[in-house]
Amino acid sequence: MADNYPVLNGAEPFYYEGGRTGILVSHGFTGSTQSMRPLGEAYAKAGYTVCGPRLKGHGTHYEEMEQTQYSDWIASIEEGFQWLKERCDDIFVTGLSMGGTLTLYMAEKHSEIKAIIPINAAVEISDMEGAAALQDARFLDAIGSDIKKADVKELAYEKTPVKSIGEIVQLMELVKGGLADIQCPALIFVSSEDHVVPPDNSRLILDRISSKDKKLITMENSYHVATLDNDQQLIIDETLAFIKKYQ
Q: pTM for the full model?
């Protein structure tokens, strides 16, 4: 499918060339790279090579997203992973929401990944399973911008395609079924109050992955889009300390 819509200002992919350690950074469902750019910039400033791909169908228009499948989102992340592999010896992966789901997917499929940092990752949302089954609606209200901090807005779609909800439900089922295959170290971030992904998703991930080194950090001062919220610096600091352990 040809891209019929221009990429929104701020939703462009980002690439920062640094040292031989790379960090793959994924945004979430209906969102854009804007939600992860502050992290990407901080990691680049610390000397890492960083890739923040724009997931196909995202950062343009929700009608374009409607035409994509979860395999397209995986392909976008795989492409970013290959870009890093050409430049780096070690690769870490992090992502928010569905970006966290894709982070888990990558760890299931690529045992060479050094460690992962899922942030409010989604593997089971019963509300979405119900929405995916709707027959009489094409688009639902937006799910973006669940942020506690005042005057901060996520660059996300104002509508959510029902077809796309069906795609993320399939992706979550796929990833949830493979959690035991994950053996790399994992630093899991979860917001204590999240109006998009129930916090028990992160606890389920913690319980089911086979990693010997795994840790859950609870963020008390942020909602779902924690990367743009009050705990942004906590995520950056803890992630940098975590990565340093495995270099």
A: 0.96
